[in-house]
Each structure stands twice: as structure tokens, then as C-alpha cells.
Amino acid sequence: MRDFCFTKYDSMLEGLEISVIVLLFVSVACVLIFEFINGFHDTANAVATVIYTKSLKPQAAVVLSGVLNFAGVFFGGIGVAIGIINLLPTDALLQGDVWLGMSMVLALLLSAIIWNFGTWYLGIPSSSSHTLIGAILGVGIAYSLDIGKGITGVNWSKAAEVGLSLLLAPLIGLTLAAILLWILKFSVKSPKIFEAPDGDTPPPSWIRAILIFTCSGVSFAHGSNDGQKGVGLLMLVLIGILPAHYALNPEFSVKDYQKAYQIFEEKVVILGKNYPSSTFDGIKKEQAILKTVFAKEKLEKADIKEARKNIIKIEKKFKEIYKKEPTIEKPAKAILSEFKKKTTDYAPTWTIVAIALSLGLGTMIGWRRIVVTIGEKIGKQHLTYAQGASAELIATATIGFSSFVYSLPVSTTHILSSGVAGSMIAANGVKNLQKSTVKSIALAWLLTLPVSIGLSMLLFYIFKLILV
């Protein structure tokens, strides 16, 4: 087994220049560092409430959160990861110049790392999701401008979808946490849950169980959403540097690709019978190329890149078809999604494990700065048991819904901190908030996207000058 693994990875690196191999390891390291920082930057979102309600000791809380973040990445699927990949003009990574593609990837990674680390150092609960999305949009815009396409190279429909989820999620967190606390006030007769902890005395066992459960839920949900972002970034690196191995799913053979394509083609024909005969004429060229490529007994590097590029083109042309025939969108998306799951929409198990380890280990380190902000500086009064449980229940539900139902990235930081703010307002009104902290969080929220967009654009042009 050991010899097989070494032979497999030797074949991947065979023929690559030393400089490209170094670039590969540096890029992978940057992804893992980003996810590690994401871990200790966002850990506070899960553990602040159990620490400040004395439900768990800090060490136990971060270990529990780290383990469940790992589990969330491992069992959370790859829907969000694919969304991250689709935000960047992936076809740019499949052009002949690997250095141009990696200028994009390195620029977005470093800009995200810089902003995330800076806000963590200042103890500001900033969104890793906003940072990453902004960085991806920045390099996408810079690349499109560089090749003379204006800003058309960015997947703006996907960006709008993601942007809306990032905007609405904290508002949902604030509103629903406040509503839940009001409901608890009227329905729960025990005054104990509306009190702050008494010294270091743990809460009653049933309250403690609820708070530990909600902490676990936020941790798992965070892993299932934020961890997938790291998986998507790692796949961008692999597709850009090793397209011959990762542009198509390496778990399948040429016959598997051929079978998947035949099923796709047959379903498109069946679907087309209910619409004008010219409906799918726009994808015939790409279909012919895929049919020719998959008819070969062995796929060369150029064939694999060509196949992925044409699948991307088919997806873009499908969107044009939806505009003309809106009723076709739902069934056509299902057909395309089934085909892509057999060809391009995948992530190797080792990438998921690597990201899960990075996020889990990061969760156990550096948590204190943001925990203090959430636990002490959002409200003027100490966090009560009911407030902690309300904020985390809403965060768990919102993040889980976004990950498993819509496959959209959301900000764990903004949902949880907004939930805490909402619970503080429900308890004693707006006057219960510390204005300086709320202003800092709001300012970071407003600045994250434009700063990360600008920084990633600047870094792209710098890397392009150096590397290309």
C-alpha cells in the first residue's frame, strides 16, 4: 500500500518543474493556514456561551468544539465547496499558463489570511466567509480586467446568491434569537435560566446539557460550512496546478465518464421534446467535443482539461437557456447536476481530512481574544443561560440550513454575534448593547468585502508581475 501511494503521487508530480512543485506545496500550505486561522478566529462563536455560563471549562470547550468542527467538515458534504469553486472563473485555471492561475489563487489566499489574522489580533468578530468571498471576487475581477473582458469573468449570479445569504443571515440571527428569548420569557417559569452565573458554579444540569448541546451544534454546523470553503480552495489549487489529475474526478474511469455523458445526453433529448427543437442547439458544439473526448480509451492531460472546460461552457449556456425558457430551469439543473457529480463536482477524501484537521486544530488555539468580545463586550450585562442557548440554537439552525439545504456559505461569526446582540436587546432593550463594540463589529462587516476585494486585486497584479 505504501509503495502504491508513493508511485501514485510520483506520477502526479512527474514532468513538473521544481518551481511548480514548490508552488504546489506553498499553495496547499496557504490553504491549510487559512483554515487553521479560520478555526481559532471562529471558535469563539461556539464556545463563548458555554464558557461564560460556566457550563464547561475553556479547555474542555475548545477540545469539544475542535472535534465537532472536524466531524462537521468530514460529514458535511461538499455543496458549499463546489459553490466556492464556481465563484472563481475556473476556466482561467485551465489555461496553458499555470503561473497565471496560481497568481489568482495565491492572491485570494493571502488577502484572506491577512484580513482574518488582523481582525483576530484586534479581537473583532469578523467574517471569514465575507473575507473569502471578497478575495475570490477581487481576483475574478482583476483577471477579467486583465484579459479585456471587463468584469464579465465573474460568476455574478452565484456572487449575488452568496452575497444575499451573507447579508440576510446575521439579520435572521439577531431577529430570531430575540424572538426565541421572548418566547422563553413567557413559556418557561424557572427564573434560573434568566440569571447570570453565580461565580464559578456550574448551572443546573438540564441547563448545562442544553448549552453543551447548542455549543456542539454550532461547532458541527461551522465545520460543515466553513470547512467546506477550505475544501473548495484546496480543489482550486489542485485543479490549477495538477489539472491532469484533478480537473475530472480521478475515482472514475473513461468508461464511467462515457456512461455519465450518455445518460446526460439522453435526458437532454427527452427534456427537449417538450420545448422548441432549437432549445438545446447552443450546447451541441460542447456536447460533440465531450463525446469525442470520452470516446478515447485513455485521456491525456489536454483531453481532461478540454472536458472540464466544455462542461463549464455547457453550464454557462444552460443559464442562457433558462432565461429564454424559465420553466426548463429546475429539470435541466437536476440533469446537469447529476452529470457534474460524476465528472467535476467532487473532492478527494484526503482533501476533506486535511481541511478537517486544520480547522479542528485551529479551533483549539487562539480562541481567547474573540471569546472575550462575544462574552463580555457585546452586552453591558453578563450573558445569561437563556441568552446563550437562544443565540446558539438559532446559529445552529441557520448555518445547518444554509449548508445542507441550500449549499450556501454563511458567516458563523455574524450569525452568532448577531444572535447574542438580539438576545441582549430582548432582555433589556437596545440600551443593553455596548455601542463601541457594536460599531467595531458593524465597521468590520462593512469594510471586509471592499478591503478583501481591493487587497486581492492588488496582490494578483503583484504576483502576476513576479510569476508570469
Account of the 3D structure:
With 468 residues, this protein is mainly alpha-helical. The chain has two domains: 15-240 and 354-467, no CATH class; 248-341. Helix content is 75%, strand content 0%. The chain starts with a helix and ends with a helix. Residues 1-10 have low confidence and may be disordered.
Helix content class: over 70%
SS summary, helix count: 19
**Subunit organisation of the chains:** single chain
- Please tell me what the overall shape is: globular
How many domain units?
A: 2
What features would you highlight for this structure?
mainly alpha; globular; 468 residues; 2 domains
List the helices and strands and how they pair.
Blueprint: H1 2-13, H2 18-42, H3 44-52, H4 58-75, H5 79-87, H6 98-121, H7 128-146, H8 156-187, H9 205-241, H10 243-246, H11 254-272, H12 284-294, H13 301-324, H14 329-341, H15 349-363, H16 368-377, H17 385-406, H18 412-428, H19 435-467
Helix pairs in contact: 2-6, 2-9, 2-15, 3-4, 3-9, 3-16, 3-17, 4-9, 4-15, 5-9, 6-7, 6-9, 6-19, 7-8, 7-19, 8-17, 8-18, 9-15, 9-17, 11-12, 11-14, 12-13, 13-14, 17-18
